[in-house]
Amino acid sequence: MENAEFIPLALAGVSFVAAHLLPSSLALRPRLVRILGENGYLAAYTLFAFATFGWLCHAYVQAPHTVMLWNPGVLRFLPLLLMPVALWFIVCGVSGPNPSSVRQEQKLAEAEVASGMLRITRHPVQWGIALFALGHLLANADLAALLFFGALLLLATLGMYHIDQRKAATLGEPWQRFVAVTSLLPLGAVLAGRNRFVISELGGWRLLFAGALYLILLLAHPWVIGVSPF
C-alpha cells in the first residue's frame, strides 16, 4: 500500500485527538466521574492524554520525512514569527485563573471575570498551541508534519468549541456572563466593545518569561530537534 508507513502516525493522531475530546464530552464525562470519582477521572484522563501524545511523538519521529506536499519557501521562517506570540499566549494562559480550565470555575464569581489575556481570548493556551502547530506545519511542508502538527492544530481548534459547549451546559448563567465579555477569536470582544485592552496585565514578567523561553527554544532547537530553526 502506497504511503503505508504513515498509518501508525495517522492512527496516533486520531487517538490523540479522541483521547482529549471523547472522555471529556457531555456524553461520557459524567459517567466516567460516577465510576472513577472526580480525582480518579482527572488522573485517568491525564494519563491517557500523555500516553497518546507520547505515541504521537514516537510515531512522528519514526515516520519518513521525505514526502513533500509543497515548497515551503519563505514559510520555513514562519515559526520564528509565530512562536513568540504563541509562547506569550501560553504563558499568560497558564499563569492566571481561567474559568475554562479544570477546577477554576470559581473565577466566575469575581467582579472582574475576564482580565489579562482573557480580555483577548478566553482560550489563550489553545490559541498558543494552534499558532505553534500551524507555523510548524506550513514550515515543514511534508506529510509527516501534516499528520503530526495537523493533529495538534485540530485538537486546539476543536477543543475551544468543545470547552465552550461543555461549560455552557454545566455552568449556565455565570458562564454566559463570562462569554459576554470575552471572545473565542483573539481581540473579538475588544473590537466589539465588550472588553478593553490592558497592556499592563499582559506585560511584565509574563512577557519576559515568554521571551526567555523563546530564546531557549531557539538555542536548543538544533540539539533537541536536530534541525536549525534558521
Structural notes for this entry:
With 230 residues, the protein is an all-alpha fold. The chain folds into two domains: 1-63; 69-224, no CATH class. Helix content is 63%, strand content 0%. The protein is built from eight helices and no strands. The chain has helices at residues 7-21, 29-62, 78-94, 124-140, 143-171, 173-180, 188-191, 204-224. Helix 1 (7-21) runs parallel beside helix 5 (143-171), helix 3 (78-94) packs antiparallel against helix 4 and helix 3 crosses helix 8. It is globular and about 55 Å long. It starts with 6 loop residues before the first helix and ends in a 6-residue tail after the last helix. The model has no long low-confidence stretch (mean pLDDT 91).
Topology, pairings included?
Elements: H1 7-21, H2 29-62, H3 78-94, H4 124-140, H5 143-171, H6 173-180, H7 188-191, H8 204-224
Helix pairs in contact: 1-2, 1-5, 3-4, 3-8, 4-5
Main attributes of the structure:
63% helix, 2 domains, 230 residues, globular, mainly alpha
Q: What would you say about this model in short?
A:
The protein has eight helices and no strands.
Query: Which sequence of SSEs, written as H and E, runs from N to C?
Result: HHHHHHHH
Number of strands: 0
In angstroms, what is the radius of gyration? 19 Å
Using the alpha-carbon principal axes, give the shape. Answer: globular
Low-confidence stretches: none
Ends distance: 36 Å
- Helicity range: 55-70%
Mean pLDDT comes to: 91
Number of helices: 8
Number of structural units classed as domains: 2
What share of residues are in beta strands? under 5%
What's the story with the biggest beta sheet?
none
- Structural class assignment: mainly alpha
